[in-house]
Amino acid sequence: MRPFLFFLTLWWVMSAPARAAATAAPAAFILLDPAAMAAYKTAYKAGHQPEAAQVKSLLGRADRALKTAPYTIATKPQTPPSGDKHDYISQAPYWWPDPSKPNGLPYIQKDGLHNPEAEAMKDSETLSKLCTDVQALSLAYYFSGEEKYAQQATRQLRTFFLEPATRMNPNLNFGQGIPGINSGRNFGIIETRHLVNIPEALALMNGSKSVDAYLTSGLKTWFKAFNTWLTTSPIALPEGQAKNNHGTFYDTQVVDFALFTGDDALAKRILQQQTWPRVAVQLAPDGAQPLELARTRPWNYVSMNLQGWVRLALMAPHVGLDLWHYTTPDGRGLRPAVEWFRPYLLGEKKMAKADVAGTSNALALDAFAQAARAYPDLQANEVFAHHPDFTPVPWAY
Questions:
Q1: Does the predicted model carry a pTM greater than 0.85?
Q2: Are residues 57 and 163 in the same domain?
């Protein structure tokens, strides 16, 4: 063997462990059903409808996301009280200047009415757009196998979570602050509920050369640190005790991030000690959600909260629990909560109180579609037939 070839072969053999270490281990789905996703992919590849049309639409969204510059919160004009622009900041959306005070302080609450000042703070919007784009890109890679989608998704993830110049610090110390009252509070945690898309994206991109061990381990480190903040910070802990949808989405995040980072014990403890007791607090025997129905946007909030419950039910089996079929002695449970929506979605009943802002059926229909897989006798097709513009897809959770 020629010396050059010898040393090349020797280098290849000796570097094999390093190359193997750089390859990310396959990620597992947490919210998505791998069998349902695989079946949908098979139908799409065969040109079946509506699968082909839905994936085509998805690919269109992903193509637009290919053109988006990397998201970051580190370049915002506002500077958080910490002086570090890597810290997330937002303002409570329903709080307004007090007209009876010369400087408007402290602010007063107008439930359901968005203050434009809060909307001018873009960290929440930036994070939401990141999660939406990464989801679309990772799904596009899953269905098409085209590396360009995974490459853009991982570029976004590295920029937002890992690169020192642009990463977000893993805390929400300054989420939903109220001028004149505080610089941050637990209610800001609802704004990071879309982060559950990120572990799912890694699983969708299994096999991509763009997903390496550095990215996977870096993301797990970030999410572990964020979960530590969620479960130890004096700012965060009251969110876990919130009785309404805020408590639901606190649970979804802690459980999801615990499963992602391998802390199954934490996931199970939250489900058993916080989620299970919420059933009796949030859900009436007939499936109604009294705490959400009391809001100025009742349909928005009952739909949103049901989404959180469905996510928890999808995650519970990972630690041997079944939320889909759990009931209290007086009959409260997720099944009645899902069925409560039926007459409204069928147009047989109208809400007693209209939302103060525009409404959508999207969240309720997506939750109904997920629940139909757990409850085969739900007769969900009757509901979907009443909404011809809606098509169930297995990646809507």
A1: yes
A2: yes
